[in-house]
Amino acid sequence: MILAVLLGFIFAIGTPLWRRILFKTFPYLYSAVPVLLFIYFVSKLPEINGSNFLIETNSWIPQLGIDLNFRLDGLSMLFSLMITGIGSLVFIYTSYYLKGHNYLDRFYAYLSMFMASMLGVVLSDNLITLFIFWELTSISSFFLIGFNNEEESSRKSALTALGITGLGGLFMLVAFIWIGAISGTYSLTEMMSQPEVLKNSSAYFWIIILIFIGAFTKSAQFPFHFWLPGAMKAPTPVSTYLHSATMVKAGIFLLARFTPILGDSPEWNWTLTIIGAVTMTYAAVHSLFRTDLKSILAYSTISALGILVFLIGLGTEGALLAAALFILTHALYKAALFLITGIIDHETGTREILQLSGLKTKMMPVAIAGYIAALSSAGLPFLLGFLSKEAMYDATLQLPTAAGLLTFLVVLTKICLLVAGLWAGFKPFSGKISEASISAKMPSPKLWIPTILLGCLSLAFGIFPGLIDKTLILPVLNSIAGYEADTYLAIWHGFNLALGLSILTLVLGTLLFIYWKPSPGKIKAIERYASLSPENLVNVLGKGFQAFAEKWTSFFQNGYLRNYVITILLFLSIMVGYRLFSGVVIYLDWNQISEITTSEFVVVFLMVTSIFFVVFSKSRTAAIVALGVIGFSNCLFFLYYSAPDLAMTQFSIDTLTVLLFMLVLFKLPLNKTFSSVPIRIRDAVISLFFGALIAILALEVFEESSIREVSDYYADNAYILAKGRNVVNVILVDFRGFDTMVETAVLVIAAIGVFSLMYLNLNPEKKD
Amino acid sequence: MELLLIFIIGLLHASGIYMLLRRSMFKMIIGLILLGNGVNMLIFLLGKLTKGHPPVIEDGAKIFTEIYADPLPQALILTAIVIGFGLQSFAIILIKRVYQVLKTDDLDELNSTDEEI
């Protein structure tokens, strides 16, 4: 199984290597990857009956409990089949749809990477691995949605999708780590054997909230749904793949996966039911107002996802059965509708349903596929849609609480979805041929065969439910419910309330389809409320955050050196100052203080005067001379307090500095004052504060008894080991000789810098 | 005496920072030098002051027989003075060069990197 999961990645990574040879000669080879995988999963189907499952263990990072273990049970089987099956159709379809596109090979690389990530998500038994694959689907879908990277709206949608799903993923990671910490394992199989550990833990509530955020962002649940319509900017094959069977269903998969582990508690059930119900009705009503085919499909997809969340939330056996059926139903008809939309777009150049009609004369096979898909979404008998709709109505009708209200909502949603399905699959093909449709030609078989295949499956499963009920749907139900369920699917359940509701749905939906026409005016009417939509709120928030970041950056990173210095100093002063003023007591030991002699006092006086002179002097020459005086007074201090070497060095260096200053001085401009008085006062306050802080710090440290261990070592060994009597010199050239050598190198570099700056001629025409 | 030195250290730091915050490059270098002096003095003071006993072993003796000034801070300061000189001379030449090319001493006029030289 590990090969099956990684095949897509290997293929994607290798694309640059073999695209020249393979791609030119055998362009269909790309489609071989999903087809082979599909055959592989079908061949495993007999092993997954009842509640059996296959598990494959591969060690990866055992120290952290992360491994590449894969678990193939009913649920992951259903998803794997959809991912590889619809993937195969999409791969074939793309070979014609994007024929001649410059980056077709790149597109296939993204697509196979995405497919592999999706397989990873549904097959992983380890939570951390699942998370990694989950994020990989976000990343590869980012590239797919933004495939038309020259369009700004495309890039923006890709970024929105990545932002929303990636953010949700991070929340999910927190939940996963939490789960791992509580249950002591990252393995789903082990968790399923001891569900009560998590359910009884105090963090249960927070864990499910975090998981919900991850699932809702991925599966476009209200209020995170808005990335999905935007993602329709992607080329149609991408929309087909991402939105019918894979990406958006990953959230559903996650919820279904965790149902046996975390489900069946009031928090779990009610949150999912409410969010699902809101999403399904909100999006279903929205879909009625769209005139762009892809928008209609986008909103009806959101609504379908809402239904799935809602059904998982109900949690009864009937509801889970309906969910399992609907996952398959929806994948089949929605993929077909998307592919058909792509064909219409490809052939007529428009997706506006108001301009499309009568295409059946031009493309009969596509029209047939469209009719089947539309009727399956409508839930007509003998189609898979009928079975799932009956199951849904059965499930809501049998609920112990609020059955009436919830059934009403489901019926309402189904009516809207029926209308949306008819608009997308029926309207473009029937009626008189419209202007936009006249130029359309019969598409290549590579485009329409996939749509017909999907339609046939809907039909076959609808007429002979026995094909899937024991082999596929029952294992799915078992793995979602976590116990052995027993069910059978039949077309005819006898006359009951569910059948009545079905008929009601059909009648009302057909009436609505005939009398309700979406129009630009109606779109405008609901766009007035757009400012309240979550999408708009997120945009406002995003813009606000960006503005804040800009202000923040331009405040701190303003390009003025002194402002950086001020920021650093203030931060330092406040941090250190706070510590100093809260708790440290200054204690002065007068015995340690030596007395002041007259000569010392004179030097101190000289120094203080010079400092003030340097700061306030208007004349540069005077300032430099005063600087020299400061240096020489410093030198005298060194001399007083037993540091003859320092005094000598300071003396020569100071002389040199003053000389250097004087040499370049005549080249410098006049001493100007640039800053205004308030700024100078501000700077003065800051610097005085900092000076005071340093003085207090010095006092504090001075009072501490010093440790002279290192000094004593040097002093004791200066003569014995290094044969030198001047300890300072011995330290510099012997004990720390290497440091001094490197220091000399620094000086040499500085000298080279000075030299080259003096002789550097930036303007060759003008000689210095 | 130590208290006076501490006062001077604080003053050197304050004036150094104040000059560092000026817009004129010339004043900035002065600030740098003042700050360097202040730091040297700080290190020196923290090594404890000792009068009349330089860390030089007397002729004939192999080790110190009486008290001596701490040699370690002195070695540090010596290094600091020399390195400081390297920095100062480079900075002085640099502002000279900047002024020659751009005809300004004002740091705020150096914000843009796009100007033609």
UniProtKB/TrEMBL annotation, chain A:
Q: What is this protein called?
A: Multisubunit sodium/proton antiporter MrpA subunit
Which InterPro entries does the entry link to?
CPA3_Na-H_Antiporter_A, MrpA_C/MbhD, MrpA_C/MbhE, ND/Mrp_TM, Proton_antipo_N
Task: Cite a single Pfam family from the UniProt record.
Answer: Proton_antipo_M
The keyword Transport appears for this protein: yes
Record's bilayer topology term: Multi-pass membrane protein
Q: What is its main location?
A: membrane
List residues of the NADH-Ubiquinone oxidoreductase (complex I) chain 5 N-terminal domain.
Answer: 62-108
Which source organism does the UniProt entry give?
Answer: Cecembia rubra
From TrEMBL, chain B:
Segments crossing the lipid bilayer: 6-21, 28-46, 75-95
* Major subcellular site: membrane
Key words of the record: Cell membrane, Membrane, Transmembrane, Transmembrane helix
Which Pfam families does the entry mention?
Oxidored_q2 (PF00420)
Taxonomy, superkingdom: Bacteria
Kindly indicate whether the keyword Chloroplast belongs to this entry: no
Membrane topology field:
Multi-pass membrane protein
Where does the record place it?
Cell membrane
Q: Which GO terms describe its cellular component?
A: plasma membrane
Protein family according to the UniProt entry? Belongs to the CPA3 antiporters (TC 2.A.63) subunit C family.
This chain belongs to which protein, by name?
A: Multisubunit sodium/proton antiporter MrpC subunit
Organism classification, top ranks?
Bacteria, Pseudomonadati, Bacteroidota, Cytophagia, Cytophagales
